[in-house]
Design a protein that fits this description.
311 residues, alpha+beta, Rossmann fold, Methionyl-tRNA Fmet Formyltransferase, Chain A, domain 2, 7-stranded mixed β-sheet, 4-stranded antiparallel β-sheet
Length: 311
């Protein structure tokens, strides 16, 4: 089976690694996002998928969009049996989706039709879901609306972060993709139409989503902190001396019920190496914090550097 792989970030790289080990097909071309400047030094950086493809001496193209006739001609010239799309970052037009013999499949990190969109992993945690999973879908021109070819569920632990689920779902997605490709080759896949009435959406994340409201419940705050780790990170504004400092919070754990007279957002001190902060109903225990323009601090370091000199 000749395939063309569309993907960009690390999630897609992990799945491409698995695909390259499959002896049932060949990746003849990789399509990824163009190189971009990144970091403080604005160094030109290639996508993880591009770096892996070049290591395996696979041809890579980096179109700014897929509407160009020359790009479409190159994709037709690949004579692919199947296009595989994983977190590519650009919309595929209908006349591109239909190029291969078996069409185009997508690996999506949710149990569709739940959490269609750009950030399914994070929104599942934000909403306190207990289960998520991976879907292999036959692509159409809608937003994650195509028929389902296969699915596999994965439990979400109470302390799982978006990073934890990212890595687990990528591994699961690679395994499920290979299993599905074997069935496609044998003609044993039966597409199942999605029930649009059960659909939910997972839009892109933004930095301003990270502001913590300590008047919320401890479980909701815990969900936010772990959902937004490692990007864009949850944070609160702390008054240090005569200025306000944005302080990023690393995932911790839910603490004890609060005694009377404690206000949400009140810092209660250090408990077992954690910084204890009051929420609406219980406390939250923070292991590490990063004030703006500072390095990452342990709870004790933060208390020594900021709480002791707060006045």
């Amino acid at each position: 089976m000749r395939t063309v792989f569309f993907g960009s970030p690390d999630f897609a790289r992990i799945i491409l690694e698995k695909l390259l080990l499959w002896d049932g097909g060949e990746v003849t071309l990789v399509v990824t996002q163009p190189d971009k400047k990144a970091g403080r030094g604005q160094k030109v950086t290639s996508t993880p998928v591009k770096r892996l493809a070049l290591e395996h001496k696979i041809e890579v193209i980096e179109p700014k969009n897929l509407k160009n006739d020359g790009i479409k001609a190159r994709l037709r010239d690949a004579k692919a049996d199947l296009f595989i799309v994983v977190a590519y970052g650009l919309i595929l037009p209908g006349d591109v989706i239909s190029i291969p013999t078996f069409g185009t499949v997508n690996v999506h990190a949710s149990l569709l039709p739940k959490y269609r969109g750009a950030a399914p992993i994070q929104w599942a945690i934000l909403n306190g879901e207990k289960v998520t999973g991976v879907t292999i879908m036959q692509m159409d021109e809608g937003l994650d609306t195509g028929p389902i070819l296969s699915q596999k569920a994965l439990a979400i632990g109470i302390n799982d972060t978006a990073k934890d689920l990212h890595d687990e779902l990528a591994k699961l997605g690679g395994e499920l993709l290979i299993n599905t490709l074997e069935k496609i080759k044998k003609g044993r896949v039966i597409p199942i139409k999605q029930d649009d009435s059960c659909a939910s959406y997972a839009p892109k994340l933004s930095k301003d989503m990270g502001l913590i409201n300590w008047k919320d419940s401890a479980i909701n705050i815990h969900n936010k902190i772990r959902a937004l780790y490692p990007w864009p990170m949850a944070y609160f504004n702390f008054q240090a001396k005569k200025r306000w400092v944005k302080v990023q919070v690393y995932p911790g754990k839910i603490g004890n019920e609060l005694s009377r007279g404690v206000s949400p957002g009140e810092i209660l001190g250090i408990r077992d190496g954690f910084l204890e902060i009051a929420c609406m109903d219980r406390s939250y225990l923070v292991p590490k914090l990063k004030p703006e323009s500072s390095k990452i601090l342990t709870a004790e370091q933060f208390a020594c550097g900021y709480l002791a000199n707060k006045s």
